[in-house]
Amino acid sequence: MDWGGGPGLLVRMLRDVGIDAYNYDKYVKNHFASGFSRSDGHRYTFVTAFEVFEHFANPKSDLEPIFALQPSCLLVSTCLYTNQGPNWSYLGPAKSAHVFFYSDEALRLIGRRYDYQVVRFPHEMTLFVRRPIAKRRLALINMLLANDRFVEIIFALKRKWSLSAKDNQMIRELIDKPIGNVPD
Fold first, then answer.
1. E-strand spans in the chain?
2. How confident is the model at residue 155 (pLDDT cuts 50, 70, 90)?
């Protein structure tokens, strides 16, 4: 499930390569993955939050609903604050929507609060994971992610079974489904 997924473009692309993904954004309508929005009570094992954390005005309360889902993994992208000055490009213009920044230690404190191991990856990616990952496996993942070409090759070789035909059929059935006893 993509938390803060905006109009659902990532979810649509993931579904198009056969990944059963869902979207959630309380501020933006899901246009690209219509019909595949988060459902209350559904368990999501893997949650993404790309460029979301830095938009939280009150991280303590804003993080609660994400971690309340208790996913096995939460993959987050956000630039880390390491005492950059006022010219830090991530700050953006004076009215930027980036309102909160995290240090490595802050992300680790969040992990401890919610009982997750925190793993930092290249490209400003942080993984919160419930079960510890073996050090050798982490080293391999880091090596693979550090090589952009290798990741592209692996993705290109993955057999892709698009869910778009199945998704369209499900949406058609929902549209065609009678709504009950509606008087003429």
1. 2-3, 23-24, 46-50, 73-77, 117-121, 125-129
2. low
Identify how many contiguous H helices and E strands the chain contains and give both numbers: 7, 6
Query: Does residue 184 belong to any structural domain of this protein?
Result: no
Residue 112 dihedral angles phi and psi, to the nearest 5°: -65, -40
Give residue 158's pLDDT.
62
Structural domain boundaries, residue 15: 2-170
Closest CA to 53 of 110, 95, 15, 14: 110
Query: Over the stretch 92-115, which tens digit does the pLDDT of each residue have?
Result: 666 567 888 999 999 999 999 999
Q: Is residue 179 part of a domain?
A: no
- Let me know if residue 39 belongs to a domain: yes
pTM as predicted: 0.78
Indicate the number of domains in the chain.
1
Residues whose CB is less than 8 angstroms from the CB of residue 84 and which lie 6 or more positions away in sequence, other chains included: 90, 91
Q: Which amino acid is at 23?
A: N
For the cut 70, the answer to whether the pLDDT of residue 156 exceeds it is no
| CATH number of the domain within which 125 lies | 3.40.50
- Tell me if 175 is assigned to some domain: no
| 171 vs 38, more confident | 38
